[in-house]
Amino acid sequence: MTDQQSMQGKFITLEGLDGAGKSVATEAVVSTIQEAGFEVVTTREVGGTPIGEKLRKLVLSRDSEILSNAEVLLMFAARSQHLEQLILPNIEAGRWVVCDRFTDSTYAYQGGGRELPFDRIAQIEQWVQGEFRPDLTLLFDADIKTAQQRVRQIDSPDRFEKETDEFHNRVRNAFIRLHSLHPERIKCIDATLDVNEVKDISQRYIKDFINQSHG
Questions:
Q1: Could you say which of 38, 65, 114, 202 has the lowest number of CB atoms within 10 Å?
Q2: CB burial class (10 A; 0-12, 13-18, 19+) of residue 136?
Q3: pTM for this model (two decimals)
Q4: Phi, psi for 92 (deg, rounded to 5)
């Protein structure tokens, strides 16, 4: 590792179905990184920048009728802006970035849910991101019934949250496929466990990663 690489921050992403409980672990993840002495920036996709947040409103609106190809391109348009304006500058400045969703969600929702070919998404990923990928991804896995029960507690579900169980089952299967393809990066957590257990497992993965990369 060069001196420049050792000074750079890390990029941590949180993934999973809507209702899988990513949000409950975010604070635990961030606090663990901060306790290790690193500065943390939190962000989300779709979003993270002024342009990204405008695109978020568009793609999540229940009134939007967006075709699958257009949808995946909008995701990467927001991601390109996000990378250049927020993610990469903070990493280069030595900060850790914790992001709620990233490209794995595009593979899962547009690839799995919308049934677009993974290789088509991979081509756009390479164009927008080059070789840049998350350093660590925590995948919060929950069965469809559990996730949908949590989503139904939301007053106004968005375009994706109101999709059918069949859609969300394809999304979950895509996430599981991604985990099998990238087990060294993607760590799967049973999100049906007690909230405190989920937080504890998340913290252990973060501590292990810190020890491996900075030990």
A1: 65
A2: buried
A3: 0.94
A4: -65, -25
